[in-house]
From TrEMBL:
This is RNA polymerase ECF-type sigma factor. It comes from Aquipluma nitroreducens. The keyword DNA-binding applies. The lineage of its organism: Bacteria, Pseudomonadati, Bacteroidota, Bacteroidia, Marinilabiliales. Residues 125-175 form the RNA polymerase sigma factor 70 region 4 type domain. It holds the Pfam family Sigma70_r4_2. Keywords: DNA-binding, Sigma factor, Transcription, Transcription regulation. Coiled coil: none annotated. CDD domains: Sigma70_r4.
């Protein structure tokens, strides 16, 4: 067993070497924090959630069966805790699904976006992502930014793969509309 494998450290912790868990914390703290931040929006809340996640993971380490990657199991703990927190807040979002975009507007936006610098493109994508509901942000982040497979996202969220595909499709559509609105305003301000 290689010392870089998660299972090496998991087994060490199970055998009583509590210090071995610090390797797992160091390896995954940024990923857990990023996921929590995408959902909760506030750095201090995300930090607290990340700490809580690692405490729960340590306490439940014996229940980790190794059927999925350790990171997937950890994401699942983070996701479920964040969703529980968000349900307490009961935030409602305005639906963007019903809006229509003309072909001409779509082409203008596409042309403008193609001409923008990479940094600006990332800025607009992040702004659009931030305006999505938290659960959609998580799905988009896990799939596109964290390169998780549909099956892994299903394990993390408890959603079916087909449901995830639909939600990601709708989230991309919402992001497209949001990008259109942002870039349209930008185009008009330049003209």
């Amino acid at each position: 067993m290689n010392k870089t494998d998660d299972i090496y450290y998991i087994e060490a912790v199970r055998k009583g070497n509590v210090q071995a868990f610090s390797f797992l914390v160091e390896k995954y703290q940024k990923l857990v924090y990023t996921l929590a931040l995408k959902l909760l929006k506030k750095p201090e809340e995300a930090e607290e959630m990340a700490q809580d996640t690692f405490i729960k993971a340590f306490q439940k380490l014996d229940s980790y069966e190794g059927k999925s990657k350790f990171s997937t199991w950890l994401y699942s703990i983070t996701y479920n805790a964040c969703i529980s927190e968000l349900r307490k807040r009961r935030i409602e979002f305005k639906s963007l699904d019903d809006r229509q975009i003309s072909d001409q507007d779509e082409q203008k936006m596409h042309d403008y976006y193609r001409e923008t610098r990479k940094e600006d493109q990332e800025k607009y994508l992040n702004l659009a992502l931030a305006k999505l509901p938290e659960d959609d942000q998580v799905l988009v982040t896990l799939y596109y930014y964290e390169s998780q497979s549909m099956d892994e996202i299903s394990q993390i969220t408890g959603l079916t793969v087909s449901n995830i595909k639909v939600k990601i499709h709708r989230a991309r559509k919402r992001m497209y509309i949001l990008l259109h609105e942002m870039l349209k305003e930008e185009v008009y301000s330049l003209m």
